[in-house]
C-alpha cells in the first residue's frame, strides 16, 4: 500500500481514512442522518403557495389579487340526483333543505346558496361557499364531505354527493399519498430482491439499500431547511425518494462490486477499498456531478415547482455520493469478507462462479465484428422508436387527467353532465397608484363595455368588478363561453391582452395583468417553450465540457451527448406511443387523454440525461482502463463492457424496478414519469451500452481519445500500437 497518500486522489484519501477509522465514519454518518431528520421535524417543509407557483403575466395577476385581498372564496357543490329512474322532486328538495341547514352550521362554510335545478329537471344543485383561505380549503373540506355523506344516508330515495375544487384536490391528494405509501413500502423489498440476485449474499445486498434509505432520509431533512428559501411545489419528497433510492443504491453497487472484484484477486480489504475508490469512486463523483448539473438546468425554467425539484434532487444526489465515498468504505472495512455472508446458496454459486462469461460477449459480437453495420442498424431502429415523439401532444394537468376510480371524480363527472360548464374566466387585475383608484375603476368599466360587445366573451354573465378595501387594486372577472384549453379561449385571451386592455388603460400609469385558468395554462406552456432551448443547451453544454475534461477527450464528450440524446429521444417516442393512444390502457390501467402532461418532457429530459451518465461514465472508464493496459480498441471495448456489464445490469434493474412502481400509480402524471424513466433506463443500459456505444467506439478507434494539446497529460497517452491480448472476436 502506498504511503504517499497526499499524492493520491481525494476519493482514495477519504476512503482510506474511513476504512481505517470505520466507527468514526459510521457513527458520523448516522449522526448526520439524525440531525437532518430532526431538522425536518423542527422546521417542517414549507409548501409553495399558488401565487409562488405562478409564472408569467398570469402569475403577476395572481400576486396583485392576493396582495389586495381580492381572492375569490372556494365553492363546493352538493349534487342531488335519482338513484335510478326519474328524480323525486320532493325527496330532492328535502335533501337540499337538510344539506343547507347542516352546511350553514359549519364554521368552514361562509354561506349556502339557493338550490338550482338542472335544465332537464333530473338534478338539483346546492352551491356552498367555504370560509377561510381558498388555498387551504382542501385541508378543511372534510367537514363538508361528512355532512354530505350523512345527508345521503338520511335520504335513501336520492343520491346526494359533493364535488368542487377543494373536494377534488382532497380526494386526489389522499389517493396520491396512499399510492406513494405503497411505493415506499414496496421499493425497499423490491430493491433488496434485485441486489440479492446480483450479489447472492444478504449483507452485500443490504448495505446499498441501507445507504440509499439513509441518503433519502438525510436529503428530505435538509430539503426541509432549503424549502424555506425555495418552497416545495408539492412533489419534491416523491422525487427525492425516486431519485435518491435509485442513485444511492447504484453508487454503492458500483463501489461494492469493484471492491469485491479486487478482493477476489487476493487483495486485502483496505487495498481493495482504495482501488475501488480510485476507479468506481471517481466514476461515482463524475456521475453525481453529471446528475446535479442536469438537474440545475431546471432553475433556468423560472418556475418555483421546477426550482424545488432541482433543489431536492441535487441534495439527494450529493448526499448519495458522499455516503458512497465515506460510510461505505468504512462499512466494507468493518465487515471485511463477512460482507459476503450469509450466502443464498444457489444464487451465490451463480454470482461467484469464475467461468468466463458468455452472454455479453455474444451480445457484443455484432458490434465488434461489424461495427459500421451494427451502428447504422441500431441508430435507425432507435430513431424509428423516437419518431412518435415528433407528434407529442402536451396538455396541462387538470381534472381530465385524474383517474375515474376516484369516487369524487365520478361525482364530478355527474355534476358536469347535469350542469355543463359555461366556460372559463379571465381575471384582469390592476394596481392603482396612490389616489388613482377612480381612474383604474373607470378603465375597468370601459374594459367591461368592450368585453360585452365582443363575441369571444360570455354574454350571459356580466363582467364583475371588485375593488380592494384600501383602494390599492381592482379586479375584473370576465366569462368565456369556451373550455379553458380550447383555441377559442386562447384567442379571447389574445384579444383581451393585445387589443382591449391597451385601449382601456391608455394613458393610465397602472400596472395590469391578465390571469385566470386560461391565462395560467397559456403562460405556463409558453414559459416552458421559451425556456426549453436554453435548458437543453445548458445541460448538453455542461455535460460535454464535464465529460471532455474528465476523460481528456473531446470525442468522448461529443459521443456522450450524442448517445444520450438518442436514448432520451427513443424514450420520448415510447411515451407518446403509450399515452397518446388507447392500446396500453388495459395493460397500465389508465384512460388515455391523447396527450402527455406538459411538464413531463422537460423533467424527463433533465433526469434521463443525468441518470444515463451513471452507466456511461462507469463503462467508458473501464474501457479506458483496458486501453491504457495495452489492449486494442475492440479488445478494450469487449473487456470494459463485459467486466462492467454485471454491475450495469444490476443497477439498471434496480432503477427499472423502482421506476416501474411509480408507473403502477393511479395518477397519470406519476404513471407517465415512471414509465418514461423505466423505458429510458432499459434502452440506455441494453441498446446504448451494449450495441450503439461499442460499435461507435470500435469505429473511432484511437480517435476516441483525441483532445487538443492543452487538455492532454502524459498519463493520458494511449499506446500507439496496442497489443491484441484478447482472443479475436472473429
Instruction: Please provide the count of β strands.
Output: 11
Oligomer: single chain
CATH architecture identity of the domain at 361-406 and 529-730: Up-down Bundle
Q: In one word, what is the shape?
A: elongated
Flag low-confidence runs: 1-6, 719-730
CATH class of the domain at 361-406 and 529-730: Mainly Alpha
Question: Remind me, CATH topology of the domain at 361-406 and 529-730?
Answer: Multidrug efflux transporter AcrB transmembrane fold
| Count of helical regions | 25
Tell me roughly what share of residues is in helical segments: 55-70%
**Mean pLDDT figure:** 87
Class computed from helices, strands and strand pairing: alpha+beta
- What profile does the largest beta sheet have? 5 strands, antiparallel
Radius of gyration: 30 Å
Share of residues in strands: 5-15%
Instruction: Report the end-to-end length measured between terminal Cα atoms.
Output: 40 Å
- So, the CATH homologous superfamily of the domain at 361-406 and 529-730? Multidrug efflux transporter AcrB transmembrane domain
